[in-house]
Each structure stands twice: as C-alpha cells, then as structure tokens.
Write a structure and sequence with these properties.
Order of helices and strands: EEHEEHEHEHEEH
Subcellular location: Cytoplasm
Family: Belongs to the IF-3 family.
Largest sheet: 4 strands, mixed
Number of helices: 5
Function: IF-3 binds to the 30S ribosomal subunit and shifts the equilibrium between 70S ribosomes and their 50S and 30S subunits in favor of the free subunits, thus enhancing the availability of 30S subunits on which protein synthesis initiation begins.
Structural class: alpha/beta
Shape: rod-shaped
Number of domains: 2
Helix content: 40-55%
CATH topology of the largest domain: Translation Initiation Factor IF3
CATH class of the largest domain: Alpha Beta
Subunit structure: Monomer.
Number of strands: 8
Main location: cytoplasm
Strand content: 25-35%
C-alpha cells in the first residue's frame, strides 16, 4: 500500500500514513493534499489550502520584482571640439543621471580628420570622469570603436542609497 510522510497544516509532522488516510484527513479539514517532495522516500505531502498558497507565492514574487534594482543605461553623445558651455550642459546631464542611480554611456563621435586625433576624445573623456568622480566611477575605460570612443560611468552604490534615504525622509 503506497504511503506518504504527512505534514499538517501548521507544519507539524503527522507521520507516515497511507495515501487514502491522508486524503481522508484532508477532506475532514477542508484542505488540499499537496505533494511537496515527490523524490523523497516515502514522498512528502502537506495539508494546505492550495489556492491561498498559490496566491501568496504570486504576491511574494511580485514584491520581489518590485524591489529589484533596474539598471538603466543613459547615453550622452559628444564631439571632440565641443564648446565649453555645451560641455557644461552635457556634464550636467551626466550628473543628473548618476544622481538618479543610472549608468551613463558617454560616446564621442569623430568625423573626418578628427579620427586621426583620438587623443582629443580620450582627454575629453578623462576630464569628464574627473569632473564627476564624486558621483560615479569609470566602469569601462575609454575605448575606440570605429568612428566612436566609448566610456561607461557607473554611480557609486553608497551615494545612491543615501540619496534615496534622504528623499524618502524629506
């Protein structure tokens, strides 16, 4: 006769009982008999309200998704011969993105003869990294990719967590 190790509705051990008896106990308690560990010898079954269990596990999964950190990569495009005022504007965007906790992909686009002077773009990226170093760190060093030079700046973890705490208390 097939048997199962039965666990009660509050997690208490009932013991090893025949399946027919387990089903009878479930019917009496107006609960479902759910197989929890089918590979165990004997298999483990539990008395529970399966609908309630499914609802609660769905709510836990939803809560976990809500608390998940979403990494967003924002992109800023620059040219090597950027005007000082335009540079300040773009730097302001980078600062805003880093304060919001987003990563920033900085792309410098080279056109024509500018391609023969990649050090101009490298210097510009270094300057930008130094200007925002209190908010973020260089996640990937500047590297040439065809006509573009790309660098990724990530926010400091501690800074963003404190910033969110300060906003929630205000």
């Amino acid at each position: 006769m097939p048997e199962v190790r039965l666990v009660g509705p509050n997690g208490e051990q009932v013991g090893i009982v025949p399946i027919a008896k387990a089903l009878e106990l479930a019917r009496e308690a107006d609960l479902d008999l759910v197989e929890v560990a089918p590979t165990a010898r004997p298999p483990v079954a539990k008395l529970m309200d399966y609908g309630k269990f499914k609802y609660e596990s769905a709510m836990k999964a939803r809560e976990a998704r809500k608390n998940q950190a979403h990494t967003v990569i924002k992109e800023i495009k620059l040219r090597p011969k950027i005007d000082p005022h335009d540079y300040e504007t773009k730097k302001g965007h980078v600062v805003r993105f880093l304060k919001a906790g987003d990563k920033v992909k900085v792309t410098i686009m080279f056109r024509g003869r500018e391609q023969s002077r990649p050090e101009l773009g490298y210097r510009l990226l270094q300057r930008l990294a130094e200007d925002v170093e209190e908010l973020g760190f260089v996640e990937s060093r500047p590297k040439q990719d065809g006509r573009n030079m790309i660098m990724v700046i990530g926010p400091h973890k501690k800074k963003t967590a404190r910033g969110q705490e300060a906003e929630s208390t205000a």
